[in-house]
Amino acid sequence: METLDLHGNDYEEIPQLVHSFIYNHEPPVKIITGQSSQMRDIVTEIVKIYGYHYHYERLTNTGCLVITEQSL
């Protein structure tokens, strides 16, 4: 599964990185946000624009989102 790790990136860079990643990779993909709620909010808003679903990789790991295609 393709993965985008956002650790070490400034918040201003995140929208462009996430748009490019989602545009160039078909779900399912992973996006690692870390524990920053601001980073998760930015990523989840972009994911919603594409009409995809997301869930956390594990119940205890809220720093890694798995992006999947929208269910019919």
Task: Describe this entry's structure for a reader.
The protein is an alpha+beta fold and 72 residues long. Helix content is 33%, strand content 29%. It has a four-stranded mixed beta sheet with strand order 1-2-4-3. Helix 1 crosses helix 2. It is globular, with a radius of gyration of 11 Å. The two termini are 22 Å apart. The mean pLDDT is 92.
Write the layout of secondary structure elements.
Blueprint: E1 3-5, H1 14-24, E2 29-32, H2 37-49, E3 53-58, E4 61-68
Parallel strand pairs: 1-2
Antiparallel strand pairs: 2-4, 3-4
Helix pairs in contact: 1-2
* Mean pLDDT value: 92
**Uncertain segments of ≥5 residues (pLDDT<50)?**
none
Strand order of the largest sheet: 1-2-4-3
CA-atom Rg in angstroms: 11 Å
Note the total helix count: 2
The percent range for strand residues is 25-35%
Shape descriptor: globular
Number of strands: 4
Question: What is the terminal-to-terminal distance?
Answer: 22 Å
Quick summary:
The protein is of the alpha+beta class and 72 residues long. 33% of the residues lie in helices and 29% in strands. α1 (14-24) links the parallel β1 (3-5) and β2.
What attributes does this structure have?
4-stranded mixed sheet, alpha+beta, 72 residues
